[in-house]
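Our working data are protein records whose layout never changes between entries. An example says more than a description, so a record of this kind follows.
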Amino acid sequence: MSATENKQRQPFAVAAGVSMRDLLASCAAAEAVSTPPRPPDPGTVVEPPAEHPRAA
């Protein structure tokens, strides 16, 4: 098998022009956008302030 034949048979796809840093950043951004927010902890729920009568 010659060197040119070996280069033509790559078993995986190569993403040319994308740095590992950009790839990892895009994965982190996709995860952040697709993950729903956590429900608040029961002990940290803040009650809304009581309503005051409106001025006339």
About this structure: Residues 25 and 31 are 10 Å apart (CA to CA). The first helix runs from residue 3 to 8.
